[in-house]
Amino acid sequence: MQSAPDLFSYRKFWAHRFGIAPELPMSREEMDALGWDSCDIIIVTGDAYVDHPSFGMALIGRLLESHGFRVGIISQPDWTNTTDFSKLGKPNLFFGVTGGNMDSMVNRYTSDRKIRRNDAYTAGGDGGKRPDRSVVVYSQRCREAFKGVPIVIGGIEASLRRIAHYDYWSEKVRRSVVMDSKADLLVYGNGERQVVEIAHRLANGEAVNELTDIRGTAYTCKHEQREGWWEKDSTSVDTPGKLNPPIDPYQMQTEESCADEKAKTEQEKKAEQTSSPKTNVIKIHRISPRNAGKTVIRLPSYNSVKDDEVTYAHTSRILHLETNPGNALALVQQHGNQDVWLNPPPIPLTTAEMDAVFDLPYSRVPHSNYGKMTIPAYDMIRFSVNIMRGCFGGCTFCSITEHEGRIIQSRSEDSIIKEVEAIRDTTPGFTGIISDLGGPTANMYRLACNDPEIESSCRRLSCVYPGVCKNLNTDHTPLINLYKRARSLPGIKKILIASGLRYDLAVLSPEYVKELVTHHVGGYLKIAPEHTEDGPLSQMMKPGIGTYDKFKQMFDTYSKQAGKEQYLIPYFIAAHPGTTDKDMMNLAIWLKRNDFRADQVQAYLPSPMSAAAAMYHSGKDTLHKVRRKGGDIEVPKGLKVRRLHKAFLRYHDPENWPMLREALKKMGRADLIGNGKKHLIPSWQPAGTGDLGEGRRVTRKAKTQSFKTQHTRPGKLAGKKRRRQ
């Protein structure tokens, strides 16, 4: 893996003499109290300002402050005019614009495109405090307020829209957000390195249009061949259309296949090259060319992908191949007479850098302007600790990998313990219970490839699918030691684990499962098998349900040994690409057989730039060779089929029974309709439910049966929604 200058090695900006602000200012009065005549950088965010490292505006703001810059916050401004965007004055260096911790469209709309009534990132929890596509709107208002001030956009909303992307809410392919926002720079991924370098270079007098070499950034430029660069067309990496011979560029090399390759003679290799000169094969372990630093892959243009689903799927595949910081090449995509240029991903932070970022002087509470108003997202995380970032799971529906990357970046044990002690000693309302020690995934702490050279050249989309890579270090000992040390601290009564658990990794460490189950489960443990059927699971890149069964067996065994009655809460996705009606029916049968009842269900929502979104839009299996003919998958689109798939997850709800009866009859499975234990849904209908309305009376026997069925399930699923970005 390439190295980068230490995040804290820059000489501090002159304004460091003003010292540390108790909280970053949100008004001119607060600036005056600090002795500031202006801000060097102003962060505009769609979230309420909470001075806590789990909130992006606070983490980036405090990091810039540690470098000597004066940082102001404009939180959830009125976007209908420029008044709020002008209240802190003109920033000396740039506006930093973010939609917030969540994508603004995911935040505002359900998977059925209905407006949400609430917003967990707003004081009071009220919805409607941010516009659709906040990054675009905020950037436009910043430009109107102060012409000529550089605008840098970032956060997950900008990160997932860095190239032309399918937009679920408008059902079309939209341009890169850097085009629509007219921003000067886009920062993608976790932006610490990029933002610090941008700030110092602008402070040193460089113009924003000169900042074209910063990793993890994107920008617009004139459409032309850049001098000194070798442009590689994306079709030379993965040609869309028919392959001859058909070779899967995502095929994962086993150790045996690698050994076979090494055993080939030079003559054999030369013969292969001669016999199929036009076949382009991507090796999973690619050594970057000598001129990689001056090589850029030309993606199909916006005009090509907006009307051609197959070309869009091809583009998505290329993007996901070029995400390893160790070997990724730059990408460029034409939009009209301009290009959107994407530099390779940023170099991950070291443990020392991660520690320093989380050790900055956060107040760990919401800004005082909010008074006693509650911010639901803060209430959820105020007693939790983020121990790592990144995820190598590669789930196709998830945006974590696209945003944070596959390389796990872990904090040191001492740094984590220090934060636990800070929560204990300074956070109001602490009762002795840490709600979570986790991150994007609960049990990837300190897990990484055993060979740095392989890690820097690997092109696998997942380290754990279709099986756990033999090169992956799966030792959970550091995490076990962390748990033990944290729960032994004075004043700490309980350490809970609330982050999603990767159970296919956990089963490789029985010691970890025993530790987790014995000490860190509060009665229920959330887990995400997502489905039971191989079809949808293969499109999700999730392990088979057999792995879940193995984990459940271990969970039950260790719970019994500990003398505790504890339950797993499995989560499932409805209507994911690759899911058929039969798949959902089989899932419903599995749920009933295992006495599970979902109070709330999650329907698949295509997040921009994810691999599953490309499947949803194109109807193609983008994990294998994209072909114009063949490779089609089932994509549940339309309100009717999505409702049916959700209804299968809630097979126990009488409101869904008429729909399910009709579907089961069409599927030739009327045998699942009846009043016995072997049936999925009953043949009778309670009055006032479903399509029958009030016109059907219910017998006493039917009422009793309904009551018993609804209230005697020990494994009833919790009603909390899971956030997927």
From TrEMBL:
<keyword id="KW-0411">Iron-sulfur</keyword>
<feature type="region of interest" description="Disordered">
    <location>
        <begin position="683"/>
        <end position="725"/>
    </location>
</feature>
<feature type="binding site">
    <location>
        <position position="395"/>
    </location>
    <ligand>
        <name>[4Fe-4S] cluster</name>
    </ligand>
</feature>
<feature type="domain" description="Radical SAM core">
    <location>
        <begin position="377"/>
        <end position="642"/>
    </location>
</feature>
<feature type="binding site">
    <location>
        <position position="398"/>
    </location>
    <ligand>
        <name>[4Fe-4S] cluster</name>
    </ligand>
</feature>
<dbReference type="InterPro" id="IPR013704">
    <property type="entry name" value="UPF0313_N"/>
</dbReference>
<feature type="region of interest" description="Disordered">
    <location>
        <begin position="230"/>
        <end position="254"/>
    </location>
</feature>
<dbReference type="InterPro" id="IPR020612">
    <property type="entry name" value="Methylthiotransferase_CS"/>
</dbReference>
<keyword id="KW-0949">S-adenosyl-L-methionine</keyword>
<dbReference type="GO" id="GO:0005506">
    <property type="term" value="F:iron ion binding"/>
</dbReference>
<keyword id="KW-0479">Metal-binding</keyword>
<dbReference type="InterPro" id="IPR023404">
    <property type="entry name" value="rSAM_horseshoe"/>
</dbReference>
<dbReference type="Pfam" id="PF08497">
    <property type="entry name" value="Radical_SAM_N"/>
</dbReference>
<dbReference type="GO" id="GO:0051539">
    <property type="term" value="F:4 iron, 4 sulfur cluster binding"/>
</dbReference>
<dbReference type="InterPro" id="IPR006638">
    <property type="entry name" value="Elp3/MiaA/NifB-like_rSAM"/>
</dbReference>
<dbReference type="Pfam" id="PF11842">
    <property type="entry name" value="DUF3362"/>
</dbReference>
<comment type="similarity">
    <text>Belongs to the UPF0313 family.</text>
</comment>
<feature type="binding site">
    <location>
        <position position="391"/>
    </location>
    <ligand>
        <name>[4Fe-4S] cluster</name>
    </ligand>
</feature>
<feature type="compositionally biased region" description="Basic residues">
    <location>
        <begin position="710"/>
        <end position="725"/>
    </location>
</feature>
<keyword id="KW-0408">Iron</keyword>
<dbReference type="InterPro" id="IPR022946">
    <property type="entry name" value="UPF0313"/>
</dbReference>
<dbReference type="InterPro" id="IPR024560">
    <property type="entry name" value="UPF0313_C"/>
</dbReference>
<protein>
    <submittedName>
        <fullName>YgiQ family radical SAM protein</fullName>
    </submittedName>
</protein>
<keyword id="KW-0004">4Fe-4S</keyword>
<dbReference type="GO" id="GO:0003824">
    <property type="term" value="F:catalytic activity"/>
</dbReference>
<dbReference type="InterPro" id="IPR007197">
    <property type="entry name" value="rSAM"/>
</dbReference>
<dbReference type="Pfam" id="PF04055">
    <property type="entry name" value="Radical_SAM"/>
</dbReference>
<dbReference type="InterPro" id="IPR058240">
    <property type="entry name" value="rSAM_sf"/>
</dbReference>
